[in-house]
Amino acid sequence: MLLMESLTSFSEIARLLIGLGMNNSSVGKVALSAAAISNMVGLLLFLVMVPLSFPSWVLGVALLVQMLFFILIVFAVVRPILFIIIKRKREGMPINDKYIYWFLVLVCLTCIYWNAMGQFPALGAFFLGIAIPNGPPIGSALVDRLESFYFGILLPLFMTACMIRTDLSVWKDILTFNISNDKKLAVVSLVLLIFFLKVSVSMVLPLLFKMPLKESIVLSLIMSHKGIVEISFYVFSFGLYFLDRDTFSILVLSILLNSLFLTVAIRFLYDPSKQFMCYQKRSLVKASYQSEESLLTCYVLHLVELQGQDVPTLISHKVQKLGVGTGTEEYSENVILSFEHFNRYVSSSISIDAFTCKAKSTHMQDDICWLALDKAVTLIILPFHRTWSLDRTSIVSDSEMIRFANFNVLKQAPCSVGILIERHIVNKTQESQQNLKVCVIFVGGKDYMEALAFARRMARQENVTLTVLCLVAAGKSKGWYQMLDTGELRELILSNDPGNPEEEISTIYLEEKIVDGAATSMLLRSMASDYDLFIVGRACGENHAATRGTESWCEFDELGVIVMGNTTGPILGQPEADFRGDRIPPPGGQEGVGEHALGDDVNWIYDMAWYGEAVRKSDGYICEEHPAKLSSDGVWEKIIYKGEGLRVWQYRLPNLEIVILFVFFLWQFFNILFRKMGLKIPKFTSMMLAGLVLNVLLTVSGDKSIIQELLFPKNKIDIPGCLGLFGFMIFWFLKGVKMNFKRILKAESKARVTGVAAVTFPIIVGLVIYMLKPVEKRTLLATPYGPLLLMESLTSFSGIARLLRDLDMNHSALGRVALSAALVSDMIGLFYVVMLVPISSPTFASFGLLIEIGFYLAICFAVVRPIMFKIIKRKREGRPIDDKYIYGIIIMVCLACMYWYDLDQFPALGAFLLGLAIPNGPPIGSELVERLESFNFGLILPLFLTSSMLRTDISAWKDCLTDHTKFAVASLIVLISLLKFSVSMIIPYLYKMPLRDSVVFSLIMSHKGIIELSFYLFSYSSKILTRDTFSILVLSIVLNSLIIPIAIGFIYDPSKQFLCYQKRNLAIMKNSGELKTLVCIHRPDHISSMINLLEASYQSEESPLTCYVLHLVELQGQDVPTLISHKVQKLGVGSGKKYSENVILSFEHFHRYVCSSISIDTFTCIANANHMQDDICWLALDKAVTLIILPFHRTWSLDRTSIVSDSEMIRFLNFNVLKQAPCSVGILIERHLVKKKQEFQENLKVCVIFVGGKDDREALAFAKRMARQENVTLTVLRLVASGKSKETTGWDQMLDTVELRECMRSNEPNDQPGTPKEEVSTIYLEQEIIDGADTSMLLRSMAFDYDLFIVGRTCGENHEATRGIENWCEFEELGVIGDFLASPDFPSKTSVLVVQQQRTVSQ
């Protein structure tokens, strides 16, 4: 007790500061650091006290060795393994679920280990958590997937259970100062004494370190806070009888009072709004008059969102002292190196210091303002929350998080603030001897004077020309601010006088009289293209004639009116075709059990410890304890209590943990075994087999074995089974969330007909057989027959979705049809279930039940669903769903299950229907799936399947042929399975589906799994089914889930689904033939690059170009992948899905106004990232596409000098498309605008690097087609091995010669009128190459001569042109030459197109 009262828990302090919003404040950071040190000292003292607390020093030392061994394993074995996992993980890809499962298993193992030592189990989990690397990818993934579930549901249960054990009456005497018990008085006195000592020490020491008094008091209150960590330790001590109930109650209630009053006191004393209060003016206007005005000091702050950590961090990198790669975190390396390069080689006179801030997105403004205050900063420059594409015509990203941070910085900054909206490279263009043209829009006020002061400082720089545009409202009298404005402008008005300073010589002053906002809009639009940078004050034009009529159109308050819009639309805030400028708007001693004498009746004490009740033999008294003891006294309990103790697994918490581990290891064993055997068996089958193995072990070992004690404790409380049943409720709820029932309306006719027939036909046949059979010969009663017939005829969408996902078929054409048919079948089955209620017992109660079900459905779809849509509309875009909504939805799941349980119906059905009412996909549906599925599916759900299998009698199959009831059940199962199989095969076959696919489809529709098993378990629990019937049904499901996936894997070969039976490549096409292309879009910045490439491609009536545009969207919170056809050419503005609106409208605009001769059709693919290649290849095969064009996985900055994003997901997708595409594939690396430069009468210069081979011939074919376009000049550079014979010796060389013959003729003089255009505009060059170094030097020498390089993927393979540089190839998908051209080290920023000819052709 002394140790815990003296300790300051880091976890509690972190949670308190987050709740108070102080975790990013200076006081909060000191408190977190102090709490971390306190925590470590406390743990050290705990380890020292362990051997001293035991009566035998031998046991104490042994326990200490065990603890140290555990710590060694955790930090010397587990932590290095985790770093290996992180290194092996592909960057940008999420952590695999299997690692999450194993982490949870490790938590259970550590708790069991510490339980076996008789120590606080949570301490082992805490040590394990310290060993796991915090932050992304592992730490943040664990926090994201587990925190909401345990913090919202499980942790409140723990706290409630703790408070139930408390005796509230113990405080009556204390509050009235009537303390007759010396022990109570001692406990209260100790608690108060330690509290006052902690407050005093925590206040005095910071005062000695010059901390202000008020902040020292706040820090001392924070350090004295108590919470859940202390409560949990006291509960553990109370469970081991180290504390009596009175002492435990006093301690718990003192913690409750502590957490209440300290929070109120801290809020009263600490005002966070005043923490950045500045007592002197820090503005540019004042700085311009100081002597050090020519010096510039820049503090660079890289903001990183805090993930998987509690402690915000501010790191100083000292850029000017750093070497490359030293002392920096990887996440800030680009920032540090870029500014270091700028400081060393560009502008050494600027003093630069770089920092990295890792903080929660909602508190980043605190770090920004704190650093500005600490460094006496004059101006903070923030980036705008919107990012534009490379050609600045479309918005790539729109981050509400950044906008939220900007707003808060503007509110509390201790100095001036500027927001930079960059759509033009703000740089002194010295190479072209052009000035940087800056324009200040001046209306009046302090923000304008600040903007003017910054602009005048820029004007002192060489090659910078400043224009001050003063907007004057006619007929207005001058006030104080106007007089100040005149003083600031006086020097500018006289700027044309000789002898002025440099900034006045390069300054132009203009003055315009403005009537209203419309005139301002027209004026600014007329001069939009004349300047590179606009600088305005944030309050520019407020209450002024210049913005009259435009104030209500301001979209972003943080930019002010002038930057954002007038009555006709945005002035400077939207990407107009004639404007590429930028804006900077700156604004302003207990008795233990071991001490008792042990008598003959001591066993009843230990029975009560686990079972919660016991009978004393001496007098027959019955004693109960509520709640019962959870944790053990350790493996040496029997030694301490002289052989009378319980084993570790006989206590509830270790028992639950051991069962979880046992089940997990078993189902993982089967899952890994099947994968190693090459069998794609669903995970549910492995879980059922794990339960079956436990059933067999239980049968073999007998009733008094350890397995019996583990799985079926004496008191019959099945805790793992209850937890597993809760897990199933969550699982089926999530399946409802993932299901999009609107898909029924979009399903193909064969899917709809099959879905209806596969359910209805077996039911009709089963009912006819039952009705035709005489009553006396019916071996099954109507009560079990109806549910059995319905469930065997039903095809569960949830089961089929999981089966297809495990078989990797959910993105195939066959999988899509199966999902649609299963969805229809599920809805029909639910309808039959509801209709079965009044038919089964036509009484008033049955119709009342039907009304109650209808009422529930009305509440779900007429109340809950609209509320969910309102929540979505109110949520700020880009921000995650608040935790309170997740907790509320989980509570509704529990309420739904209780409601259906009260109706005596299947409870999980209520959860499923509620899931259907939740909008699927982002933001709510995907958030629920992400936070709940991993934890639930990996650990909790297997408990449900195992407990179901343990209720099965394996011997029930022995006499199936002799027992009439068992035979009837088995016959019904076989009959319905054959009927479903036949119907599901015949109907698709009649719809022209191939026979093999029809057979596979019928097998999928006949699959049974967890949904059927859960319904049978409910029927068995309700006494509708006997144990023999239940056992036969369950074992039939196990056989079904084993045999059907094996049969599907044997019949269906997914590698042949995209096999093409004809050649589809550019090399065999005639120049006048139709070219069909499939263009893939991931992000908005890919749109302009693809459009520019299409515009540069040749198209005419004789040689048409058809383009299919596929927008790829990652599937979130759904089971069903979707492919939507938008028909761009028929769409009007604003139609189509929101997530593809930019793509649709951009290509529609391109088709209508730029290039109407190109036929365009747009699609949206919503699919899992690992299976997007299936949709791409399927669409290419279906549309007979010749060329697929993919974007490269790297994206460059606006000036194309640095890499902005590097998506491993896109790279993985490109690899898979290259492997299985049914046509040719091109990967476009855009770092230069590939566009016909008709405005400047310049040709687009294209260069093909030709070495030889089919990919090079494909690249040449595409380039020759481009050369037929006007203003496109083609150069073919052939690399020939030096010293080799030029005679053609093989088939490939002959084809190369044929392809190059036309290019060779282009160098010959030819003025005949019939000569094709591509021959006239083609230049053929030939260069002898010795090795790769020669190739490198040659390409570098011509780097700036071309706008686009086109190469084959295998260009230069096994050729002298790449000898010596093959090992330097970073990206295999680009080939050696393509990788060299696309590397950041290549001097030019020219775009590259890498082409691969069709690989998969069936002979």
Automatic annotation (TrEMBL):
Cell compartments where the protein resides: Membrane
Q: Is-annotated flag, keyword Transmembrane helix?
A: yes
The protein's UniProt keywords, in alphabetical order, are:
Ion transport, Membrane, Potassium, Potassium transport, Transmembrane, Transmembrane helix, Transport
Please report the stretch or stretches of sequence annotated as the Cation/H+ exchanger transmembrane domain. Answer: 6-267, 673-1051
> Taking the first listed entry, what is the main subcellular location of this protein, grouped into a coarse class?
membrane
The membrane topology of this protein is: Multi-pass membrane protein
Domain called Cation/H(+) antiporter central: residue spans: 296-435, 1105-1235
What range(s) does the Cation/H(+) antiporter C-terminal domain occupy? 1244-1398
- One Pfam family name is CHX17_2nd
Question: Where are the bilayer-spanning segments?
Answer: 30-50, 56-78, 99-128, 148-164, 185-209, 221-243, 250-270, 656-674, 686-702, 717-734, 755-772, 784-804, 816-837, 843-864, 885-901, 935-954, 966-987, 999-1018, 1030-1052
- Record's InterPro entries? Cation/H_exchanger_TM, CHX17_2nd, CHX17_C, CPA2_transporter, Na+/solute_symporter_sf
Determine the domain of life of the protein's source: Eukaryota
Similarity comment: family membership:
Belongs to the monovalent cation:proton antiporter 2 (CPA2) transporter (TC 2.A.37) family. CHX (TC 2.A.37.4) subfamily.
What is the protein's given name? Answer: Cation/H+ exchanger domain-containing protein
